[in-house]
Amino acid sequence: xxxxxxxxxxxxxxxxxxxxxxxxxxxxxxxxxxxxxxxxxxxxxxxxxxxxxxxxxxxxxxxxxxxxxxxxxxxxxxxxxxxxxxxxxxxxxxxxxxxxxxxxxxxxxxxxxxxxxxxxxxxxxxxxxxxxxxxxxxxxxxxxxxxxxxxxxxxxxxxxxxxxxxxxxxxxxxxxxxxxxxxxxxxxxxxxxxxxxxxxxxxxxxxxxxxxxxxxxxxxxxxxxxxxxxxxxxxxxxxxxxxxxxxxxxxxxxxxxxxxxxxxxxxxxxxxxxxxxxxxxxxxxxxxxxxxxxxxxxxxxxxxxxxxxxxxxxxxxxxxxxxxxxxxxxxxxxxxxxxxxxxxxxxxxxxxxxxxxxxxxxxxxxxxxxxxxxxxxxxxxxxxxxxxxxxxxxxxxxxxxxxxxxxxxxxxxxxx
Length: 416
Description:
Blueprint: H1 5-15, H2 21-50, H3 56-87, H4 108-132, H5 139-170, H6 225-231, E1 250-251, H7 253-259, H8 263-266, E2 271-274, H9 281-294, E3 299-303, H10 304-316, H11 320-326, E4 332-338, H12 345-358, E5 363-368, H13 383-392, E6 396-401, H14 405-415
Parallel strand pairs: 2-5, 2-6, 3-4, 4-5
Antiparallel strand pairs: 1-6
């Protein structure tokens, strides 16, 4: 890139964002003040209750004060973490089990709406305190307290309404809108779904809407995203938006669209994509994995057989526990092709340990050639039923039905 004076000036101005860093550390100190205030109020309440001087009204008002302090502290941490992440520098929390769900797609509009709703909540507590102690509250103060609270509600509603169109407008650019007529990719491995070259075009392309819309806030060129995609071990690079939604005869588009929002990763839940060979399960799994990488999550992809080998090698080296613990750094593990290769009792037990270790700790995305209820046919030994039980509990299950896309391509090429 050419180092022009304009570019240098732009970099210098952008570097001034670090001047805000001390401000956020000042808010950390303010949070400490509220911690002191909370325990001071709590101690006073305990003393009044022990000595019998606490009336019911006093206890209610004291508890509301404690709630008020906690809500303001929550507002502070939201401003500290969200504001620093948005306006100063990214916080490397990827893979941390306590990473806030909203932090993976935080932006200035989302932060403003969350702050506005938090302020409305704090105002509600203040107004409730005034009504509880109405006999000692001036009518003029009560009237203006109600008016100010309603103003907060109206302003929060207007801000939320305005933030929606702004987010949608920003999504129509390079990474927010739906791709139109994605070009076919030649030579891609896995379950490809672009229109097959040379196939007859005796009818218009189906007008079925794309099943998985782009996630608002996902930055395809986010810092580190490409490195995460490369490290994930995908067999090829595929996008959810390129999936041929018109090919499967039966496809749960609603559930797939919900998975595309990646909330299941934040909730540490599993997902299962089940269907016959060639119906697009690997494409969808890779697409979800790529989107997760773009959203800041670390991902690992391997077939079920490869996972079994990896765990067996770790066990042979006496480090199975360390291997399972190391995988905690990956919020999403993808297990492809369950059902194509049967597993003996030892391999089933190792895979059960993986599923059990990840249970409500991290997400698993599994693809298989049969419904989850029949996964027990694949895993031998007593660990099989327990593995399936842990895997499908609270899991999102997407059933895909149809003919093999690869077989259709081969038949079309033979007919030509």
